Amino acid sequence: MDAFYASVEQRDDPALQGRPVAVGGSRQRGVVAAASYEARQYGVRSAMPSVTARRKCPELVFVPPRFDVYRAVSAQIHAIFARYTTLIQPLSLDEAYLDVTVSLIAHPSATAIAEEIRAAIRAETGLTASAGVSYNKFLAKLASDYRKPNGQYVITPRMGPRFVETLPVERFHGIGPATAARMHALGIRTGLDLRAWDMERLARHFGRAAAFYHGIARGVDERPVEPDRKRKSIGAERTLEQDIHHWEQALAVLDLLVDRVWAACGKRGLGGRTVTVKVRYADFRHTGRTRSLAAPLASRAALREVAVGLMRPFFPPEMGVRLLGVTLSNLDDGETAASGTQFALALDAS
């Protein structure tokens, strides 16, 4: 989807159409969750501090997020996907991989299917989507960003290796900023540079990821579309309207976060064994602690007890705290969680 959260807000409020919009944060606090294309022209991006976004675009309109609405629209979009294939791998509310090798509806090509899906999304939701069509996930992802917004691009098998050659490695899906910086330090700046490295040399510097990097530099990606891929974690975080300094303030926020995480687990019938707390300070430095248990947590009270224990050492802080977060990972189904034992076998992995 194109600037999904911001586009939904502009759709639902005509006064926002054509204006630079940021979803999330506020005029002074928080971070941008999504930016409209009008805002992006000023350099506003998701995950940018609100203060920085305001500085870049003084006319920026901040809108509080409405995740229930975004989830409802996402369900509409996924229902459209399901008309064409059962092999759907969601990446987020607004993005998914579809394997249409064997489509549920007869079509001459994947290109035609993508065009029809985009038209259906526009007709049924009033929103635009972009599509990438290719013979593997890596190239399809690259192609989906190539003609945004409201565009479509196809990378054929003949085009694949050449398409990768000139791209900067930081544009590769699967290579984040830290890895891109390491590659730059090694003289790897483009796909062609990456292709010049053999497996042995890549493995020395990048370990288990070497095989993936070796393949994508050649336009090769053997990963299948995984419709039943399990969720890895459930988390919640909150940017505070004012920096906090006291344990009682943190505890009140922590209770809200634990409530949100446990409610999300209940909806999905999941429990988890690993709890992580996150703290971000006023200067945007962040830290955290993690604890893994021998069995899945069986109650909200148990989750709270672990989270409180992990958070307590950070208070009193050296400076104000602007964000707190709680995440539960190593997820399992609820039946396993309900039968789990608790803290006697807890392992501290902080």
TrEMBL record:
GO molecular function, one term: magnesium ion binding
UniProt-annotated catalytic positions: 95
EC category name: transferase
Compartmental location: Cytoplasm
Keywords: Cytoplasm, DNA damage, DNA repair, DNA replication, DNA-binding, DNA-directed DNA polymerase, Magnesium, Metal-binding, Mutator protein, Nucleotidyltransferase, Transferase
Residue stretches making up the UmuC domain: 1-176
EC number: 2.7.7.7
Binding site for Mg(2+): 94
A Gene Ontology biological process term: SOS response
Protein name: DNA polymerase IV
Provenance organism: Gluconacetobacter liquefaciens
Lineage: Bacteria, Pseudomonadati, Pseudomonadota, Alphaproteobacteria, Acetobacterales
Encoding gene (name): dinB
